Structure formats: C-alpha cells, structure tokens
Amino acid sequence: MQYAIQQLYYDGKYQPATSSKTFQTIDPSTSKPLAEVQAASHADIDSAVASARTAFYSWSQTSPVERSRILLKAVSLLRAQNDTIAKTETQDTGKPFSETSTVDIVTGADTLEYYANLVASGGLNGETAQLRPDAWIYTKKEALGVCAGIGAWNYPIQIALWKSAPCLAAGNCMVYKPSEMTPLHGQILAQIYTEAGIPPGVFNIVQGDGAVGGYLISHPGIAKVSFTGQVSTGQQVASAAASGMKYVTMELGGKSPLIILPDTELENAVDGAMMANFFSTGQVCTNGTRVFLHKSMKRAFENRLLEKMEYIRSLEPMDPNSNFGPLVSEIHYKKVLGYINHGIAVDKAKLLCGGVKKPNMPAGYENGFWVQPTIFTDCKDDMKITTEEIFGPVLCILEYESVEEVVARANNTKLGLAAGVFGRDLNQCHEVISKLEAGITWINTWGESPAEMSVGGWKMSGLGVENGRRGLMAWVREKSTLVEGGGIVGTVFAKL
C-alpha cells in the first residue's frame, strides 16, 4: 500500500514543509517504499512552536475536567480505528498485525484514558498546610508550557501517546517529532486529537532526522524535552536541554538481566525467556537479553527452549498466525547481523540456534530485513554480545551457581533499565528483586507495562519516569504560596 505524501501538522491542520527536503519510509518486510515524508525546516519548527505557544494559555487554563472530556473522545476514536491504525503500524514497523492490533494502539489508548481520568479526579490537586493559626501554605501544580517529544521507531504510536497523554492532560502543549524510521503515525494521531476537539496548536507534528530533533530540543520556546532512544543520543539530548535549563525525561537503553532461580517450573522459565527476547523481534528496550540460568537446570532449559523455537513464525506480517517480524531497517539489520557474527567469530559463544542466515520467506518478502531468532549459550560476562545492547532477537545464556553471585553479576553494568526474576519461592524472588539495580522489574512475568505502572531507568538508562501517578508529575511545576492572614506584617525594622 502506498500512502500520500506526509506533511507536517501544526496549528490544527496539515502544513507543507518549506525545506523542499523529503525522505522515504520503508516497509521492512519487503524493503519497498511506503511514502514520501516532508522534512521540517528551522522555520517550520519555529512556526510549530509559535502555534503551540499561542495555544498554551487557553489550554492550560481549561479545567482538568474539560481537558479530560476531550482526551476521552480521542480514546474512543483510537479504539474505533484500532485495526486501521494497526495495519499502518505493521507496514511502517514490520511488526506482525497480531501484535500491533492487540498491543500498540490498545496500550497507548489505555495510557491516554488513565491520565484523562486522573486529572479529572484530582490528580493535579495541590496541598495545604496550616503554619500558624492565621497563616497558611498552599501549593499549586502548573503546566510547564510547550514541550518537545522525540519518539522512537519500535513502538511509534504507543510512545507518542505515552508522551502526549500526560503532557496534554496536565495542560501543556506539545511539538512531537516521530522517528524518521517510522513516521506514519504522526498525522494519524494529530488528526484524531483534532477530531476529538483539541484546539489548534495543542498537539503538533514535525518530521525529520536528528538535525530536526536537535533544533527542536534546543529551541528557546521549549520548556521540556521527553526523549526515548539509545543511550548515546540521550546523552546528547540531555546535554542540549540542560544548557537551556529545560525539564527532561529520558527513557534510554538497557542490557537487562533475567534471573531464573533453580526452583522455577521449566515451562515458565522457557516461556518467560522467549517473551523477554523474541517478542517484537527483540526490538524492545526492556528485553531481558542476559538470561542467567542455575547450572542445575541449564541442560533441561536449553532442550525445551529449542523445542519451543519452532513456535516462532516468520510469515507475512498480516497473517494472523505470524508472531515474528523483520527488523525495522536495513541499517539496523546490518547492525544486528554484525553482533551475531561477532558472537560467533570473536566472542566464541556457542551458537545454539539461529545465526546470520536469512529465514525462508514467502514470495514478495525475500528482500525484507528478516533475521532468525538467535540463541547463544556458554556466554561470559565480558563478551560483546552480553555487554552491549543489540536491540534484536539475540538471547544470551549465562550459567551461575549462587544467588549472591548472580545478583552481583546482573548489576555489573552501567545500564539499569529493567530486570526480572522467575521462581516458586516468592519471598526469595522479592529479595532478589530488591537487590537488582533497575527501575522496571518483574517477578514471574516479563514485559507488561500498564498505564498504572511507572517505568524509568536507573544509572545510564534514563532520567525520570513515564506512566503511573509519578509520570504526571513530570509534566508540571510546583508553585508554593504562603498567606499571612493576621493583618500585621512582621518586620525587624521597628523603632527602638
């Protein structure tokens, strides 16, 4: 399917870019172009920010209940158009329709619904304290202003909603830049917000590469930057934002440990490891790519894992039985293959399954960016494949003997996005989780991040959180006021 040329969207309508530059978005399953996308110029970004600044006063002064009503209309529109949007996400990202239709739009709409209800039910209320009988302190939560959202390519519309939902619910306006790898959701979401009744300028879309994002985050009209992406880019974004004293939220990468305790039921251990590595073709920042197995169960685990690998099906993305898509782009495809080659040739890890050979695909899909789900075993902690984020379907098995040992090894990384533990003894699981240095953790499950759950990385994996009640606080600033009601102004400058 070919899409119309993608324009910018600000001031409540489509806007042609003035840069005269365009780029293509590619269907990863076929490597064929989907659409031409117009890239924003600096002048276009200025116009989008100006539109948002004009809209800010009115939107921020709109009552939380009224903002909630509008956002809930957008939720209804998202749910009604779920399958249509999911088809676009499948073509843009390569992810199977079975995934995009049940996860991406659904969870994004859940987050918008959560924040709409939260602000309508007092989530932005301040606090009061009586200082003295005739003196009171009250606090007020106020919107920040115009915020920049920088999206990632793996969950395009979900991430756009994770950022825009609390931003808009709190009374801010947003200029959002989708990833140039997966830009098609931008116009869709902007249209839905406009149809729901969000005023012109409240939510805006600018398209382009890192240079567009760089100009946007450095713009003096931007009060906050919310970024999702790799650590190195996040460091640059945070540095640029800090020079302007902007608020920031950073959701960055990980090399997360999945610890399987020796009492874990074998089926649960295997299913958990597969979900933590092969869901969404491994292109998930929270994936548990370092699977720590107690030596007593390593052989049984590997045997059952190999048996279950046949349940991973690379089919046409719209086939309801497909559950494993291609990688998102040729650049990323080559990067992931490079890691697999390194694991074989340099790290000398044992290749248990997969490798660099492309899987057999139906006619028409041979040139897509398909890769085999890959398993390495007998891995060591200092291997490149166990220390660097691959962001692909590459599972590394590491053996351990004691709980104290595995916790120390799991924490031996500069990253701290996610971690998890599987086991029958819940008290022991809780004890292990309490010692792991990560912001997002799971026990006997992996990957679910509901709107109610705050998510954010520790160490080099990020700053701040998204989702949950704390996620709303990332989009407001506090104003404290002390009121003296005694009728007398205290002074030290009195006549002796």
Automatic annotation (TrEMBL):
This is aldehyde dehydrogenase (NAD(+)). It catalyses: an aldehyde + NAD(+) + H2O = a carboxylate + NADH + 2 H(+). Residues 18-480 form the Aldehyde dehydrogenase domain. The active site is at E251. It holds the Pfam family Aldedh. Keywords: Metal-binding, NAD, Oxidoreductase. It comes from Calycina marina. It comes from the Eukaryota. GO terms for molecular function: aldehyde dehydrogenase (NAD+) activity; metal ion binding. Belongs to the aldehyde dehydrogenase family. Its EC number is 1.2.1.3. SUPFAM superfamilies: ALDH-like.
